[in-house]
Write a structure and sequence with these properties.
The chain is mainly beta and 149 residues long. The protein is built from 2 helices and 13 strands. The strands form 3 sheets. The chain has a 6-stranded antiparallel sheet, covered by helices on one side. It has a 5-stranded antiparallel sheet with strand order 7-6-10-9-8, covered by helices on one side. A hairpin with a 4-residue loop joins strand 8 and strand 9. The termini are far apart.
């Protein structure tokens, strides 16, 4: 069962811009909302997604990006699909805790967590409070951590 606070937080992504997708050795990150200076010049959005698991981008009737793990060489391929002025729809599939973001009229980003954290999870950071709330999501569980910024 999906945590209701996660569902509520994910729904807050609707209407926010998605920007700064970055593929690194530990997965892909994506920022949402206003730009914030959260730590020593590091920019982040109101919300940050860090996917360390399988992602898929589908659009225009085709699977555009099916990867178990995003790789740096695919950055230019993904950018046009992922960067958007406003998330149209955001939800969590309660069957497997996967994240679904409708980025454009016909472009869907799906993030599929593994059974446990070691095999792949996704994290959502909420920077809109005086503390950062982090949701760590696997197929079986959702853990919530907080930290003062």
């Amino acid at each position: 069962m999906t945590d209701t606070s996660l569902i509520e937080t994910v729904s807050k992504l609707e209407g926010l811009p998605a920007w700064e997708p970055l593929i690194g050795p530990c997965g892909i990150t994506l920022e949402f909302g206003s730009k914030l200076n959260i730590f020593k010049g590091l920019e982040s959005g109101d919300f940050s997604l860090w996917a360390q698991c399988e992602i898929k981008v589908s659009g225009h009737g085709k699977l555009r990006y099916p990867r178990c793990y995003p790789v740096k060489e695919d950055q230019e391929l993904l950018d046009p699909f992922i960067i958007t002025p406003a998330i149209m729809k955001a939800a969590v599939d309660e069957k497997d805790n996967s994240l679904r973001l409708l980025l454009h009229e016909d472009v869907l980003l799906s993030v599929y967590p593994a059974e446990n954290e070691d095999d792949g999870c996704w994290l959502l950071f909420d920077h809109t409070q005086t503390y950062t709330r982090t949701y760590i999501v696997t197929r079986r569980e959702i853990r919530i951590e907080t930290a003062t910024v």
